[in-house]
Design goal:
By secondary structure, this protein is an alpha+beta fold. The protein folds into three domains: about 100 residues, Immunoglobulin-like (Sandwich), CATH 2.60.40.10; about 110 residues, Immunoglobulin-like (Sandwich); about 325 residues, TIM Barrel, CATH 3.20.20.80. Helix content is about 20%, strand content about 30%. The chain has 13 helices and 36 strands. Strands 18-19-23-26-27-28-29-36 form an eight-stranded parallel beta barrel, surrounded by four helices. Strands 30, 31, 32, 33, 34 and 35 form a six-stranded antiparallel β-sheet that branches. A hairpin with a 2-residue loop joins β6 and β7. The longest helix has 23 residues. It starts with 5 loop residues before the first helix and ends with a helix. It is an enzyme of class 3 (hydrolase).
């Protein structure tokens, strides 16, 4: 066992979690005492940028249906982008109002607003703050100089190799306690709201001794005395279940898969899939119009409820323990944390972008300043774990230790992607510069924390898109590895049926665009990419057409269609676990191409079953690739049949 100073390990959180409740403005009180208060937390600071979070706490007996928060900022401080509220600025007064979708603050609950901004080295705490015309600190409007009492009964409630869980008794204050800060070696390492009397400090080292205290702060910014300290040593890292072969096995876990598909993080464990993986990519994080990573709970923008707000039952939870309302982290993020405790060698990376959320990447990568701002905000949110408070969960450092790196999924720099994307000719060079910025900031974070962070990317199958968007010789030194699209070669956006994931060109394909995995991999090899740095993407879903005549071969392949086949969630696409049980279809396959398809005389599905999945994996190994990637793991069945076929081929 080794004792190690905590300061280097948690210095990032100490800097990030400076909780600064809003003090009473030096202007005369304009309203009587209120049960509604507003507190502020500077969650992170870098160079000339910072991230802030403002929380409205409603301690009244009635819901706050509408609200207006007004404040000024210290000289040299400004806000560049805000979320979860509408921001306007006039004459130096910043005004926050509910967003377009509304934001009712329930009785006895809170609502958080986040922003990124610029500072000049001084304070960023809002000044002269009013909510609906009353002081944000609540109370009578008279200055409050009395701090809260010290919390009592600080107790260690649990330890793992990388985390310590704590609980304590409630503090009291003459006006209102706004929240609690957990400290170690004099620095703040976590902060939670007033209703939360427990917290987990993550991102720690195995078999290492730590000391923690807790203190309360009130709505006027007064900090009370620290509690008595507790000493604790993290557990040994036993390595968990033995890992499979050295080949990389990467699976995308989709944020939205917990809904209609009902695929939870726990399914990774119960199906036996987790022990067969080296990496999970969590899809996706979004980038806003200001070019910054952000968290929201609005359709089309973000799903904070799925990420860290939803409470899972004991039956749904990885460790069989139900979530509690008082937890500062719930949802998929907490389940991933639990999964990593069982499989400590499993890496979890946060994937940014995707087909729909690549909209603002070109703007974010445009200038050195915009690149620095995007990267800093993404690291702050996901790697430092400074989540905005949502429905009682989140807060500074709440997600620290969950993610091991960033996966970039910009679809696509310099070429057509989603119709709403901004595309510029200079995207190619700007993507290289963005990757370099990520690598430099990740290296700095590694030096600061003593923990390594990965950088990966999902890259296209189309050689034309490679040439338009990617300087492979300059990119590869900054990536740990890349995942290469091995699917979506064809689909129902085309009128003619075809393979979506063939290893080799099909001699029957006379179309204008003949794609194959062999062609794609060779394109990267020709551009100097080491095959061991490439991870081949495999689809756990199929593409389908209907209105398909048999054709001369009687199998429906390379025939015109009348449109996409009906799908469970979207026409033209279906999960493997659904396709495999479709009645009335004949199975066709081409073993040389590693392809399979189903045809019933009218509808054709091109897909991969256990046999073709094994063929593709074997091809990747035989060609010296670094491993395989799955999009997406929720397409597998409850027994993990497809990932088992992949695993068998890799052994």
């Amino acid at each position: 066992m080794r004792a190690r100073p905590l300061r280097r390990r948690l210095a990032v959180l100490a800097a990030a979690a400076l909780a600064l409740p809003l003090s009473l403005a030096p202007t005369p009180a304009a309203a009587e005492s209120s049960d509604v208060t507003v507190t502020y937390v500077e969650t992170s600071r870098w160079d000339n940028g910072y991230a802030g979070q403002l929380t409205i706490e409603n301690a009244s007996a009635a819901a706050l249906d509408d609200w207006t928060v007004e404040f000024t900022l210290p000289a040299g401080t400004s806000i560049t982008t805000a979320w979860n509220a509408t921001l306007s600025v006039s004459g130096g007064v910043h005004t926050l109002r509910p967003p377009s979708w509304g934001a009712v603050v329930p009785a006895g609950s809170g609502y958080s607003i986040g922003w990124n901004g610029v500072h000049s080295g001084g304070e960023t705490t809002p000044e002269n703050c009013l909510i609906d015309g009353s002081p944000c600190s609540g109370g009578s409007g008279e200055p409050d100089g009395e701090p809260p009492t010290a919390p009592e009964g600080l107790t260690v409630t649990g330890t793992t190799a990388t985390s310590v869980s704590l609980s304590w008794g409630e503090a009291t204050d003459d006006v209102a306690v706004a929240g609690y800060e957990i400290l170690s070696e004099g620095g703040v390492v976590r902060a939670v709201d007033a209703d939360t009397l427990s917290a987990t400090v993550a991102g720690l080292n195995p078999e290492t001794s730590y000391s923690f205290t807790v203190r309360a702060y009130d709505t006027s910014g007064n900090r009370g005395p620290e509690s008595g300290a507790v000493q604790v040593t993290t557990e040994a890292d036993d390595g968990g279940p033995s890992l499979p072969a050295e080949d990389l096995r990467v699976a995308y876990f989709t944020q939205w898969g917990i809904y209609d598909r009902g695929y939870l993080v726990n399914d990774l464990e119960t199906s036996g899939s987790a022990e067969k993986l080296t990496h999970i990519n969590y899809a996706f994080g979004n980038v806003n119009a200001g070019g910054e990573c952000f968290m929201a709970n609005q359709a089309g923008q973000g799903d904070a409820w799925a990420d860290y707000g939803r409470s899972f039952t004991a039956a749904e939870s990885v460790d069989g323990v139900a979530d509690q309302w008082s937890q500062d982290l719930r949802g998929n993020f907490n389940q991933l944390r639990k999964l990593k405790e069982i499989h400590p060698d499993l890496k979890v990376n946060l994937s940014l972008g995707g087909w729909t959320w690549s909209e603002h990447f070109s703007d974010a990568a445009l200038t050195p300043e915009s690149r620095e701002r995007m990267v800093s905000s993404c690291i702050d949110l996901y790697l430092r774990g400074n989540l905005p408070i949502f429905d009682g969960a989140g807060g500074p450092g709440s997600a620290a230790g969950i993610f091991d790196g960033i996966d970039l999924d910009w679809e696509w720099p310099g070429s057509e992607g989603h119709e709403h994307n901004t595309v510029r000719p200079e995207d190619k060079e700007n993507f290289t510069a963005l990757v370099r910025e990520f690598r430099e900031q990740l290296d700095a974070l590694e030096a600061e924390t003593g923990r390594g962070f990965e950088l990966t990317a999902f890259l296209p199958a189309d050689p034309e898109k490679i040439d338009l968007g990617f300087e492979m010789d300059r990119l590869m030194p900054d990536f740990d590895f890349i995942t290469v699209q091995g699917y979506d070669y064809h689909g129902a956006w085309e009128d003619t049926t075809n393979h979506q994931s063939n290893l080799l060109p099909d001699p029957r394909d006379t179309g204008a665009n003949v794609f194959s995995t062999e062609t794609t991999v060779q394109a990267y090899l020709d551009r100097g990419v080491d095959p061991s740095d490439m991870v081949l993407g495999l689809p756990f879903y199929g593409r389908g057409w209907t209105g398909v005549a048999p054709g001369p071969e009687g199998d429906g392949l390379f025939q015109p269609s009348t449109g996409p086949a009906p799908g469970s969630y979207e026409d033209g696409i279906e999960d493997w676990k659904v396709i495999k049980d479709l009645p009335g279809f004949d199975l066709y396959r081409d073993d040389d191409l590693g392809t399979a398809w189903l045809y019933d005389g009218n509808t054709l599905w091109t897909y991969d079953d256990e046999v073709s999945m094994g063929q593709k994996t074997t091809w990747a190994v035989d060609n010296g690739l670094g491993g395989v990637m799955i999009w997406s793991i929720d397409g597998d069945d409850a027994s993990g049949s497809l990932i088992t076929a992949v695993d068998a081929a890799l052994r």
